[in-house]
């Protein structure tokens, strides 16, 4: 009897294992690491990706933080090349587009969970502070999401006059401000509150109001509106 080559045995096992993963997905029984593993099978066809999936989750803290991690951090992890990192970030971008389509078509207050998830997807995992301004029409639907500025690990510049100019250009009726704190579990600083007030004071005489200001930090979204920090 001809001995079965180990390589053939391994290939048979991997093919069978991947088929079992697909079936578990259809049955709704995948664990978090298995979902990431399933995704990785489509970009790494000839390797056992279970150790990589588990390692990424251990390194970044979960499937969601893996998706939102900066592409450079992903590529720095052993076993994740450029193609794998791009694949992971493309899934992230598809999720952002899905939430944005909802914000384009319906008022932002229709489902604030969608708005909060959009903030998380845009800003979680960033190692530098970013300020985004969402400009809304008279029915509170999204007109534009502008990256207003990028800064350092603990600071980003804001330009209220530029926000005003852009709001007038878009004929916006309200705005949502959002930025991140790369340091986990940090809510609004005094400077954040002062900025919110300054922008609000500049926009209000023209009938444009600040609907909310969100801070994303450590996977948490803090709302200035809910914390009664909006004038």
Fill in the keyword field for this structure.
about 230 residues, alpha+beta, Cytidine Deaminase, domain 2, five-stranded mixed beta sheet, 9 helices, about 50% helix
Distance between the termini: 83 Å
Given helix and strand content, the structural type is: alpha+beta
Mean pLDDT: 90
Count of discrete structural domains: 2
In terms of quaternary structure, the protein is: single chain
What is the number of strand segments? Answer: 5
Briefly, what CATH class of the largest domain? Alpha Beta
Encode the helix/strand succession as letters.
HHHHHHHEEHEHEE
Describe this structure in words.
The protein has two domains: 88 residues; 112 residues, Cytidine Deaminase, domain 2 (3-Layer(aba) Sandwich), CATH 3.40.140.10. Strand 1 and strand 2 form a beta hairpin. The radius of gyration is 22 Å and the shape is elongated. The model has no long low-confidence stretch (mean pLDDT 90). A five-stranded mixed sheet has the order 2-1-3-4-5, with helices on both faces. The protein has nine helices and five strands; from the N terminus they run H-H-H-H-H-H-H-E-E-H-E-H-E-E. With 231 residues, the protein is α+β, with helices and mostly antiparallel strands. The relative contact order is 0.09.
């Amino acid at each position: 009897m001809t001995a079965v080559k180990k390589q053939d045995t391994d290939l048979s096992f991997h093919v069978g294992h991947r088929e079992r993963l697909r079936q578990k997905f259809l049955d709704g029984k995948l664990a978090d690491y298995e979902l990431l593993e399933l995704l990785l099978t489509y970009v790494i066809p000839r390797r056992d990706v279970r150790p990589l999936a588990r390692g990424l989750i251990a390194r970044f803290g979960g499937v969601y933080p893996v998706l939102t991690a900066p592409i450079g951090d992903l590529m720095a992890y052993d076993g994740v090349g450029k193609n794998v990192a791009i694949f992971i970030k493309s899934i992230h971008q598809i999720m952002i587009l899905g939430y944005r389509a909802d914000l384009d078509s319906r008022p932002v207050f229709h489902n604030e969970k969608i708005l909060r998830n959009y903030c998380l997807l845009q800003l979680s995992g960033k190692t530098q502070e970013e300020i985004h301004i969402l400009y809304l029409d008279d029915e509170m639907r999204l007109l534009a999401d502008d990256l207003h500025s990028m800064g350092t690990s603990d600071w980003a510049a804001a330009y209220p006059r530029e926000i005003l100019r852009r709001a007038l250009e878009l004929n916006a009726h309200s705005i949502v401000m959002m930025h991140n704190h790369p340091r986990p579990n940090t809510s609004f600083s005094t400077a954040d509150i002062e900025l919110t007030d300054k922008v609000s004071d500049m926009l209000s005489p023209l009938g444009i109001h600040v609907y909310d200001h969100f801070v994303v930090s450590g996977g948490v979204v803090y709302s200035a509106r809910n914390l009664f920090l909006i004038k």
